[in-house]
Amino acid sequence: QVQLVESGGQLVQAGGSLRLSCAASGRTLSSYSLGWFRQAPGKEREFVGAIRWSTGSTYYADSVKGRFTISRDNAKNTVSLQMNSLRPEDTAVYYCAARTGAVAVTRTQYDYWGQGTQVTVSS
To answer: Confidence band (pLDDT; 50, 70, 90) for 28?
Structure first.
């Protein structure tokens, strides 16, 4: 079992920045990939980006590429999502997820989920 707890969500103005964190516990993450997803009201949960823990390799959705950056802290067992140049359409609940093996882009491929953190971007 992997437990995930997200934090850092808040209200921010368009063009601003925000950093989300996901604290993982329960397992050594060396064989896992950690993903970030988001879900806006009335919409499907969508892939934002992911990182392969062992290599640090990252992958991003086109909608956030160049604006969002995922990183990991091995000592703290956390994954961060740095979000810059935020837009109102980035407003959503952001979720952290984990799976064993390589990065994946669909929600059904992830086994463990956090409770989510709300990000609201005002125009």
So the answer is: confident
94, 6 in Cβ contact below 8 A? yes
Q: Is pLDDT at 16 greater than 90 in this prediction?
A: yes
DSSP state of 90: G
Res. 38: pLDDT tops 90: yes
Beta bridge partners of 60: 49
* CB-facing half-sphere around the CA of 48: CA atoms within 13 A: 26
Alpha helix (H) ranges present in 1-123?
none
From residue 95, alpha-carbon distances to 35, 65, 117, 123 in Å are: 8, 18, 7, 23
Q: How far apart, in whole angstroms, are the C-alpha atoms of residue 122 and residue 24?
A: 30
pLDDT in tens, 43-53: 999 999 999 99
| 47: helix, strand or coil | strand
**How far is the C-alpha of 76 from the C-alpha of 15, rounded, in Å?**
29
**CA angle, 96 then 99 then 103, to 5°:** 90
